[in-house]
Design goal:
With 219 residues, this protein is mostly helical. It is built from 9 helices and no strands.
Length: 219
Amino acid sequence: MALQRPLSSALLLLHLHSVPLQPSPALTLLLHPTRRHESSARRTKKKLHVAPASIFEKPSSSSSTTTTNSPTGDHILYTPPPAAPSVYHTPTPFLPLTDIRRTLYPPAAPPPVESQEGECKKPLPAVRAPYEKKYHLTPADVQEMRALRAQDETTWTRERLAEKFGCSPYFVGIVAGASEAWKEQGRSRLEAVKARWGARRRDAREERIKRKEGWLRDE
């Protein structure tokens, strides 16, 4: 028995050395100290510390930078928040020249600054170059357009007919619209494309439709 006890103790020590020890949570905090982030109280207070506005500062009697408009005693500060104009406020251009409210309202905005040549800034360019509308098509041309459209809708598209007769594709769509069979083929091709959409694109298209419906309802 005396020889078995030291042998068992040696085996136990060997087993403990072979098994890795799991550090406790308290030991983990000591080995890996916490890091300071921007959410600390001191840094947050330091970032939110903003100097007060000049109207809230009361100038001292010994200061040499005081102006005639600087308050010398207790006073009331009126700084209303921005709000929508009131219906009871009459704009300055509609007031009589002798009305005292002209002196109470702030002055109007200055006129736009002119360039050195004496001309104001040029307006933005048009999206489409100006053009003159043409009314040169005859009833015979319209009949020919409809015949070509009915003959082969794949070849004689709206764009090609508009190029041939010198008109817009919108006018071609009015006088020589596509047949129901051609429209059905277009809807079938569109459904085949939609079938390959993923969930993300499908949700995006549905949201786009909802936004357009909201625009029509002024939402």
